[in-house]
Design goal:
The chain is α+β, with helices and mostly antiparallel strands. 14% of the residues lie in helices and 27% in strands. Strands 3, 4, 7, 8, 9, 11 and 12 form a 7-stranded mixed sheet that branches. A hairpin with a 5-residue loop joins strand 1 (27-32) and strand 2. Bound molecules: the ligand Nc1nc2c(c(=O)[nH]1)N[C@H]1C(S)=C(S)[C@@H](COP(=O)(O)O)O[C@H]1N2 and molybdenum atom. Ligand MTE is lined by residues 2-6, 58, 60, 95, 114, 143-144, 156-157, 159-162.
Length: 239
């Protein structure tokens, strides 16, 4: 049960086609506002940072949710190595562009490649995670092999899959879903039961596998950890 539109827009197609993603060699390019652009091999990243397990809630903007045991490392560790300049206020994540591996990139459901972004203080928050595995194994293609972003207090679409580039930038970047439907998908996309999607309520969610809907928690339950990032911001306006 996945969302990975480059592999198909149904929930089951990504798992059927995920094997097409070639995960080695895999290079992450880091560009923009940093001391020196970097070209990092995925196995170097694993050697530098190791892998820890994090069990996080995952809440899709479509109002379904799961609990997932990820394997990976904090994005903050990687950003510290990158030495961004003081002009770096945001960071973007660009994901794989290759219709041979991602056949639904032949379609125009979204503008490709899929791009997401975070404010730099969100990106360096200790909960923000680069996942390379789940359930103790390497990520399957459908979950964003070989590495993807996980931001547990935001709607799932902020967590770009199969990331190939990080770019430090000065201004708020354009992001894929925000560009596609700005009234429906904000840049911030913090999980918020009080701000409904124009076409459905965000007050509750269907945990996959459960019968009764659950109440959705502010910031997906990570309020104590992250609410201070948004002090003084009108979260209805910056949804
Ligand atoms: N490249 C890419 N990343 C993506 C998506 C996508 O379509 N393409 N879908 C997003 C959405 S909407 C969600 S809910 C999560 C789903 O992650 P999961 O399938 O690993 O649970 O991935 C996000 N990352
Ligand atoms: Mo989603």
């Amino acid at each position: 049960y996945n969302n990975y539109y480059e592999l198909g827009t149904s929930k089951s197609e990504p798992a059927r086609l995920g094997f097409r993603i070639k995960t080695r060699p895999w290079t992450l390019h880091v560009t923009g506002e940093l001391e020196t652009p970097l070209t990092l091999d995925i196995d170097t990243l694993i050697r530098w940072f190791g892998l820890e397990e994090r069990v996080y809630r995952m809440r899709c903007v479509e109002a379904w949710s799961m609990v997932i045991p990820w394997l990976g490392f904090p994005l903050a560790d990687l950003i510290a190595r990158c030495k961004p300049t003081s002009r770096a206020k945001y960071v973007t994540f660009t994901t794989l562009l290759d219709p041979e591996q991602l056949p639904n990139q032949e379609s125009r459901v979204l503008p490709w490649p899929y791009v997401e972004g975070l404010r730099i203080d969100e990106a360096t928050h200790p909960l923000t995670f680069i996942a390379l595995g789940l359930y103790g194994s390497p990520l399957p293609g459908q979950n964003g092999a070989p590495l993807r972003l996980v931001v547990p207090w935001k709607y799932g679409f902020k967590g770009g899959k199969s990331v190939v580039q990080m770019r430090f930038v000065e201004n708020e970047p354009e992001t894929t879903w925000n560009r596609a439907a700005p009234d429906e998908y904000g840049f911030y996309a913090n999980v918020n039961p009080l701000v409904d999607h124009p076409r459905w309520s965000q007050a509750s969610e269907r945990r996959i596998g459960e019968l009764v809907r659950r109440k959705t928690l502010p910031f997906n339950g990570y309020q104590d950890e992250v609410a201070s990032l948004y002090q003084g911001m009108d979260l209805k306006r910056y949804f």
